[in-house]
Inverse folding.
């Protein structure tokens, strides 16, 4: 029961786009032919005071009423089968006190885990395979290497030959939900995310010490966009179709949050307000008052 309660709470958090906490569940059972009930109390995080806002809700119940039961079943199944691919995202939503670097790597780790569990295709680049084969032959023939070194290097090369670069994996994973985003921009974005993740993993931050402000700015803006794409990906895994995803990103009241994040990460072009005003005044939709008094007349 506890697992179902927490799964339902996390699903509603995603659909409502709010860190809500459900009330204590009430357990009902039969005792001597009578209905008996009791509140079920257990350890949990402090309930959030954050209220659900209609303009931030991603999928109102009216739009998913016919499939809501199936969606709960799918969600419970996906949480079990995809494990960290789901849980690492949920952790970024529940834990608001993460530092920017930790928040970002949690998103990337979650997407890496998700990619491995949804059947990512192995590396099929013939040039890369040929290069790795030559390196393996070099390792085998190198007389200065001992047995332990050879074993370690072979394992490293084998793992590199079977798994595609992180940027490619992120691109393939996010492409189905990157609706309206130029393909070249998405590739540049996933390459930037992969580079940032590698810098954090191998250097603990910026590659060259002294440029932290630029580095952390890149982490924050890419994190914001990546979290939105991650959210869309999870919603898509629940069976939500492309039309609904487009509504979320481009048409619904809360779509501005998605568009702003994508613009800052250079996934979407910035809005040209001058062009909009110029077009509006060239072809006005309503009569323009010629004098201030005309507004009230």
């Amino acid at each position: 029961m506890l697992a179902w309660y927490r799964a339902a709470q996390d699903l509603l958090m995603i659909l409502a786009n709010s860190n809500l906490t459900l009330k204590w569940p009430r357990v009902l059972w039969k005792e001597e032919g009578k209905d008996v009930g009791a509140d079920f109390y257990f350890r949990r995080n402090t309930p959030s005071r954050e209220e659900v806002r209609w303009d931030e809700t991603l999928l109102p119940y009216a739009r998913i009423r016919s499939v809501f039961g199936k969606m709960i079943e799918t969600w419970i199944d996906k949480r079990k089968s995809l494990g960290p691919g789901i849980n690492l995202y949920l952790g970024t939503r529940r834990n608001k006190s993460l530092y920017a670097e930790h928040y970002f790597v949690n998103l990337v780790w979650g997407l890496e885990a998700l990619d491995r569990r949804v059947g990512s295709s192995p590396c099929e680049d013939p040039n890369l395979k040929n290069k790795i084969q030559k390196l393996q032959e070099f390792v085998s023939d190198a007389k200065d290497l001992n047995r332990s070194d050879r074993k370690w290097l072979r394992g490293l090369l084998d793992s590199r030959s079977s798994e595609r670069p992180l940027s490619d994996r992120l691109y393939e994973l996010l492409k189905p939900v990157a609706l309206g985003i130029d393909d070249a921009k998405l590739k540049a974005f996933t390459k930037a995310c992969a580079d940032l993740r590698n810098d954090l993993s191998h250097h603990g931050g910026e590659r060259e010490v002294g440029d932290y402000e630029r580095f952390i700015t890149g982490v924050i803006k890419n994190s914001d966009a990546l979290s939105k794409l991650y959210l869309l990906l999870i919603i898509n895994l629940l069976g939500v179709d492309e039309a609904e995803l487009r509504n979320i990103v481009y048409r619904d009241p809360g779509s501005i949050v998605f568009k702003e994040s994508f613009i800052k990460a250079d996934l979407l072009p910035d809005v040209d307000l001058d062009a909009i005003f110029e077009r509006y005044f060239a072809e006005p939709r309503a009569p323009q008052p010629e004098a201030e008094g005309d507004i009230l007349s």
The two ends are 65 Å apart (CA to CA).
